[in-house]
Amino acid sequence: MAINLKELVQKDIKFTAGHRLCTGCGPALVAKWTMLAAADYNVAMSSATCCVEISSAVYPYSSWKVSWYHNAFENAGAIIGGIEATYKALKRKGKMDKDFKFIAMGGDGGTYDIGLQSLSGMMERGHNCLYICYDNNAYMNTGIQRSGATPKYAWTTTSYVGDAYQGKQQRRKDLVSIIAAHDIPYVAQASVGYWRDYMTKVQKALETDGPAFITVYGPCWRGWRAETHDTVELGRLAVQSNYWPLFEVVDGKWKMTYTPRETKPLTDFLKPQGRFSHLFRPGNEALMADFQAEVDFKWDQLQRRVKASE
Known about the structure:
Number of strands: 8
CATH topology: Rossmann fold
Number of domains: 1
CATH architecture: 3-Layer(aba) Sandwich
Distance between the termini: 20 Å
Shape: globular
Strand content: 15-25%
Strand order of the largest sheet: 2-1-3-4-6-5-7-8
Structural class: alpha/beta
CATH class: Alpha Beta
Radius of gyration: 19 Å
Order of helices and strands: HHEHEHEHHEHEHEHHEEHH
CATH superfamily: Thiamin diphosphate (ThDP)-binding fold, Pyr/PP domains
Number of helices: 12
Protein backbone atom coordinates (compact mmCIF):
# COMPACT_ATOMS: atom_id res chain seq x y z
CA MET A 1 0.00 0.00 0.00
CA ALA A 2 1.70 3.19 -1.22
CA ILE A 3 0.81 6.77 -0.32
CA ASN A 4 0.51 9.00 -3.38
CA LEU A 5 1.31 12.56 -2.32
CA LYS A 6 -0.02 14.13 -5.53
CA GLU A 7 -3.38 12.48 -4.96
CA LEU A 8 -3.46 13.28 -1.26
CA VAL A 9 -2.99 17.03 -1.68
CA GLN A 10 -6.13 17.12 -3.81
CA LYS A 11 -8.29 15.61 -1.08
CA ASP A 12 -10.45 17.40 1.44
CA ILE A 13 -8.64 17.50 4.79
CA LYS A 14 -11.18 16.81 7.51
CA PHE A 15 -9.11 18.60 10.17
CA THR A 16 -9.11 22.30 9.41
CA ALA A 17 -6.90 25.25 10.28
CA GLY A 18 -7.93 27.72 12.95
CA HIS A 19 -7.45 25.45 15.97
CA ARG A 20 -5.60 26.64 19.07
CA LEU A 21 -2.78 24.11 19.19
CA CYS A 22 0.72 25.49 19.60
CA THR A 23 2.95 26.45 16.73
CA GLY A 24 5.14 23.42 16.07
CA CYS A 25 2.73 21.02 17.79
CA GLY A 26 3.48 17.36 17.00
CA PRO A 27 -0.04 16.10 17.80
CA ALA A 28 -1.50 18.73 15.45
CA LEU A 29 0.39 17.01 12.63
CA VAL A 30 -0.94 13.66 13.83
CA ALA A 31 -4.52 14.92 13.69
CA LYS A 32 -4.09 16.46 10.23
CA TRP A 33 -2.33 13.45 8.73
CA THR A 34 -4.85 11.04 10.26
CA MET A 35 -7.74 12.85 8.65
CA LEU A 36 -5.88 13.09 5.36
CA ALA A 37 -5.22 9.35 5.38
CA ALA A 38 -8.92 8.80 6.14
CA ALA A 39 -10.13 11.29 3.52
CA ASP A 40 -11.89 8.66 1.40
CA TYR A 41 -14.03 7.35 4.26
CA ASN A 42 -17.02 8.45 6.28
CA VAL A 43 -15.53 8.74 9.75
CA ALA A 44 -17.05 8.68 13.22
CA MET A 45 -14.51 9.82 15.76
CA SER A 46 -14.18 9.95 19.53
CA SER A 47 -11.52 12.04 21.24
CA ALA A 48 -10.38 11.70 24.82
CA THR A 49 -9.70 14.90 26.75
CA CYS A 50 -6.23 15.94 25.61
CA CYS A 51 -4.33 18.79 23.96
CA VAL A 52 -5.85 18.06 20.57
CA GLU A 53 -9.40 17.86 21.90
CA ILE A 54 -9.33 20.93 24.10
CA SER A 55 -7.68 23.06 21.40
CA SER A 56 -9.62 21.94 18.35
CA ALA A 57 -13.21 21.98 19.58
CA VAL A 58 -13.81 25.05 21.70
CA TYR A 59 -17.59 25.48 21.66
CA PRO A 60 -19.18 26.57 19.39
CA TYR A 61 -16.27 26.01 16.99
CA SER A 62 -14.63 22.83 15.73
CA SER A 63 -11.79 21.90 13.39
CA TRP A 64 -13.29 18.46 12.75
CA LYS A 65 -15.27 17.89 9.56
CA VAL A 66 -16.40 14.42 10.66
CA SER A 67 -18.89 13.00 13.15
CA TRP A 68 -16.95 13.82 16.31
CA TYR A 69 -17.56 13.04 19.98
CA HIS A 70 -15.68 14.36 22.99
CA ASN A 71 -15.34 11.89 25.83
CA ALA A 72 -13.58 11.93 29.18
CA PHE A 73 -9.96 10.94 29.77
CA GLU A 74 -10.90 7.44 30.87
CA ASN A 75 -13.43 6.14 28.36
CA ALA A 76 -12.33 6.72 24.75
CA GLY A 77 -12.24 2.98 24.07
CA ALA A 78 -15.67 2.40 25.58
CA ILE A 79 -17.23 5.33 23.71
CA ILE A 80 -15.89 4.46 20.26
CA GLY A 81 -16.79 0.82 20.83
CA GLY A 82 -20.32 1.85 21.79
CA ILE A 83 -20.65 4.05 18.72
CA GLU A 84 -19.48 1.19 16.49
CA ALA A 85 -21.91 -1.24 18.14
CA THR A 86 -24.79 1.22 17.70
CA TYR A 87 -23.89 1.66 14.05
CA LYS A 88 -23.97 -2.12 13.51
CA ALA A 89 -27.40 -2.33 15.15
CA LEU A 90 -28.75 0.45 12.94
CA LYS A 91 -27.34 -1.27 9.85
CA ARG A 92 -29.04 -4.54 10.82
CA LYS A 93 -32.36 -2.74 11.20
CA GLY A 94 -32.00 -1.00 7.85
CA LYS A 95 -31.82 2.45 9.46
CA MET A 96 -28.29 3.20 8.24
CA ASP A 97 -27.06 2.78 4.69
CA LYS A 98 -23.69 4.56 4.80
CA ASP A 99 -20.41 2.80 5.56
CA PHE A 100 -18.29 4.27 8.35
CA LYS A 101 -14.82 3.90 9.82
CA PHE A 102 -14.41 4.43 13.56
CA ILE A 103 -11.40 6.20 15.09
CA ALA A 104 -10.60 7.10 18.69
CA MET A 105 -7.73 9.43 19.56
CA GLY A 106 -6.05 10.27 22.83
CA GLY A 107 -2.77 11.41 24.30
CA ASP A 108 -0.46 9.21 26.32
CA GLY A 109 -2.03 10.26 29.63
CA GLY A 110 -5.50 9.24 28.53
CA THR A 111 -4.19 6.09 26.83
CA TYR A 112 -1.20 4.66 28.73
CA ASP A 113 -2.74 5.48 32.12
CA ILE A 114 -6.27 6.76 32.71
CA GLY A 115 -7.95 5.14 29.72
CA LEU A 116 -6.06 1.84 29.59
CA GLN A 117 -8.94 -0.17 31.05
CA SER A 118 -11.51 0.93 28.44
CA LEU A 119 -8.93 0.61 25.64
CA SER A 120 -8.18 -2.95 26.72
CA GLY A 121 -11.88 -3.74 26.84
CA MET A 122 -12.43 -2.40 23.34
CA MET A 123 -9.61 -4.55 22.02
CA GLU A 124 -10.73 -7.68 23.87
CA ARG A 125 -14.32 -7.35 22.66
CA GLY A 126 -13.16 -7.09 19.05
CA HIS A 127 -14.74 -3.78 18.01
CA ASN A 128 -13.92 -2.79 14.43
CA CYS A 129 -12.25 0.45 15.49
CA LEU A 130 -8.87 2.15 15.21
CA TYR A 131 -7.39 3.70 18.35
CA ILE A 132 -4.62 6.25 17.80
CA CYS A 133 -2.44 7.39 20.69
CA TYR A 134 -0.26 10.40 20.08
CA ASP A 135 2.61 10.07 22.51
CA ASN A 136 4.25 13.28 23.70
CA ASN A 137 5.58 11.69 26.90
CA ALA A 138 3.60 13.57 29.56
CA TYR A 139 0.28 15.15 30.53
CA MET A 140 1.01 18.23 28.45
CA ASN A 141 -2.59 19.49 28.50
CA THR A 142 -2.75 19.76 32.29
CA GLY A 143 0.70 21.05 33.19
CA ILE A 144 3.48 18.73 31.92
CA GLN A 145 3.05 16.09 34.64
CA ARG A 146 4.80 12.73 34.21
CA SER A 147 2.81 9.85 32.68
CA GLY A 148 3.41 6.17 32.11
CA ALA A 149 4.93 7.18 28.75
CA THR A 150 7.48 9.57 30.26
CA PRO A 151 11.03 8.23 29.82
CA LYS A 152 13.23 7.55 32.82
CA TYR A 153 15.27 10.60 33.91
CA ALA A 154 13.03 13.07 32.06
CA TRP A 155 12.18 16.31 33.83
CA THR A 156 8.48 17.08 34.28
CA THR A 157 6.63 19.26 36.77
CA THR A 158 6.05 16.16 38.92
CA SER A 159 9.47 14.55 38.38
CA TYR A 160 11.86 17.35 39.21
CA VAL A 161 15.60 17.41 38.77
CA GLY A 162 17.36 18.27 42.00
CA ASP A 163 19.39 16.92 44.89
CA ALA A 164 16.99 14.08 45.68
CA TYR A 165 16.10 12.89 42.19
CA GLN A 166 17.31 13.30 38.63
CA GLY A 167 13.98 13.37 36.84
CA LYS A 168 11.53 10.49 36.60
CA GLN A 169 12.76 7.37 38.40
CA GLN A 170 10.70 4.74 36.55
CA ARG A 171 11.08 3.36 33.05
CA ARG A 172 8.37 4.11 30.49
CA LYS A 173 5.50 1.70 29.94
CA ASP A 174 5.73 -0.51 26.85
CA LEU A 175 2.16 0.08 25.69
CA VAL A 176 2.59 -1.41 22.22
CA SER A 177 3.60 -4.77 23.71
CA ILE A 178 0.60 -4.62 26.06
CA ILE A 179 -1.80 -4.02 23.17
CA ALA A 180 -0.10 -6.62 20.97
CA ALA A 181 -0.66 -9.14 23.77
CA HIS A 182 -4.41 -8.76 23.13
CA ASP A 183 -3.83 -10.67 19.86
CA ILE A 184 -5.64 -8.09 17.73
CA PRO A 185 -5.14 -7.96 13.94
CA TYR A 186 -3.09 -4.77 13.66
CA VAL A 187 -0.73 -2.86 15.98
CA ALA A 188 1.87 -0.31 14.89
CA GLN A 189 4.35 2.28 16.11
CA ALA A 190 4.96 5.44 14.09
CA SER A 191 6.46 8.94 14.35
CA VAL A 192 5.72 12.41 13.00
CA GLY A 193 9.27 12.30 11.65
CA TYR A 194 8.07 9.87 8.97
CA TRP A 195 4.72 11.01 7.62
CA ARG A 196 4.50 8.48 4.79
CA ASP A 197 5.08 5.56 7.16
CA TYR A 198 2.43 6.90 9.55
CA MET A 199 -0.24 7.55 6.94
CA THR A 200 0.35 4.14 5.36
CA LYS A 201 -0.23 2.57 8.76
CA VAL A 202 -3.44 4.54 9.27
CA GLN A 203 -4.77 3.30 5.94
CA LYS A 204 -3.76 -0.29 6.75
CA ALA A 205 -5.49 -0.01 10.11
CA LEU A 206 -8.68 1.37 8.58
CA GLU A 207 -8.80 -1.56 6.17
CA THR A 208 -8.29 -4.07 8.98
CA ASP A 209 -11.26 -6.20 9.96
CA GLY A 210 -11.25 -5.88 13.74
CA PRO A 211 -9.48 -3.76 16.34
CA ALA A 212 -6.39 -1.77 15.36
CA PHE A 213 -4.00 0.37 17.39
CA ILE A 214 -1.30 2.88 16.44
CA THR A 215 0.91 4.84 18.78
CA VAL A 216 2.63 7.76 17.06
CA TYR A 217 5.44 9.86 18.50
CA GLY A 218 4.33 13.49 18.57
CA PRO A 219 6.95 15.74 20.20
CA CYS A 220 5.75 18.61 22.37
CA TRP A 221 8.36 21.34 22.16
CA ARG A 222 6.99 23.14 25.20
CA GLY A 223 6.99 20.12 27.49
CA TRP A 224 10.27 18.86 26.13
CA ARG A 225 11.91 22.30 26.46
CA ALA A 226 12.88 22.28 22.78
CA GLU A 227 12.51 24.72 19.90
CA THR A 228 9.25 25.05 17.96
CA HIS A 229 10.94 24.25 14.66
CA ASP A 230 12.51 21.02 15.96
CA THR A 231 9.31 18.95 16.16
CA VAL A 232 9.70 16.87 13.00
CA GLU A 233 13.48 16.60 13.40
CA LEU A 234 13.07 15.25 16.94
CA GLY A 235 10.57 12.75 15.55
CA ARG A 236 13.21 11.62 13.08
CA LEU A 237 16.08 11.52 15.58
CA ALA A 238 14.00 9.38 17.93
CA VAL A 239 13.78 6.79 15.16
CA GLN A 240 17.35 7.15 13.88
CA SER A 241 18.81 6.67 17.37
CA ASN A 242 16.75 3.46 17.86
CA TYR A 243 14.87 5.06 20.74
CA TRP A 244 11.54 4.88 18.87
CA PRO A 245 11.64 2.15 16.20
CA LEU A 246 9.07 2.01 13.42
CA PHE A 247 7.34 -1.35 13.20
CA GLU A 248 3.99 -3.11 12.98
CA VAL A 249 2.46 -6.30 14.36
CA VAL A 250 0.13 -7.91 11.82
CA ASP A 251 -1.79 -10.95 13.06
CA GLY A 252 0.87 -11.52 15.69
CA LYS A 253 3.86 -11.17 13.34
CA TRP A 254 6.35 -8.39 14.13
CA LYS A 255 7.89 -6.50 11.22
CA MET A 256 10.15 -3.47 10.90
CA THR A 257 8.77 -0.79 8.58
CA TYR A 258 11.94 1.30 8.62
CA THR A 259 15.50 0.60 9.75
CA PRO A 260 18.07 3.43 9.81
CA ARG A 261 21.03 2.83 7.52
CA GLU A 262 23.26 4.29 10.19
CA THR A 263 22.25 4.57 13.84
CA LYS A 264 22.74 8.09 15.14
CA PRO A 265 24.01 8.72 18.67
CA LEU A 266 21.30 8.86 21.30
CA THR A 267 22.78 12.18 22.42
CA ASP A 268 21.70 13.72 19.10
CA PHE A 269 18.10 13.05 20.12
CA LEU A 270 18.42 14.02 23.78
CA LYS A 271 20.57 17.16 23.58
CA PRO A 272 18.01 19.50 21.95
CA GLN A 273 15.57 18.72 24.77
CA GLY A 274 15.89 20.78 27.92
CA ARG A 275 14.11 18.07 29.91
CA PHE A 276 17.27 15.96 29.58
CA SER A 277 19.86 18.72 30.03
CA HIS A 278 20.92 17.33 33.43
CA LEU A 279 22.12 14.11 31.76
CA PHE A 280 24.93 16.11 30.17
CA ARG A 281 26.23 17.53 33.45
CA PRO A 282 29.54 16.26 34.81
CA GLY A 283 28.94 13.40 37.22
CA ASN A 284 25.81 12.12 35.49
CA GLU A 285 27.57 9.86 33.01
CA ALA A 286 26.07 6.78 34.68
CA LEU A 287 22.55 8.10 34.04
CA MET A 288 23.28 8.53 30.36
CA ALA A 289 24.79 5.04 30.20
CA ASP A 290 21.69 3.60 31.86
CA PHE A 291 19.47 5.41 29.36
CA GLN A 292 21.50 3.99 26.47
CA ALA A 293 21.38 0.49 27.97
CA GLU A 294 17.59 0.62 28.12
CA VAL A 295 17.38 1.73 24.47
CA ASP A 296 19.73 -1.08 23.45
CA PHE A 297 17.74 -3.66 25.43
CA LYS A 298 14.41 -2.67 23.88
CA TRP A 299 15.92 -2.57 20.38
CA ASP A 300 17.41 -6.06 20.79
CA GLN A 301 14.09 -7.32 22.17
CA LEU A 302 12.29 -5.98 19.12
CA GLN A 303 14.80 -7.54 16.73
CA ARG A 304 14.31 -10.93 18.41
CA ARG A 305 10.55 -10.61 17.96
CA VAL A 306 10.96 -9.67 14.30
CA LYS A 307 13.33 -12.58 13.66
CA ALA A 308 10.98 -15.01 15.39
CA SER A 309 8.17 -13.84 13.06
CA GLU A 310 10.13 -14.48 9.86
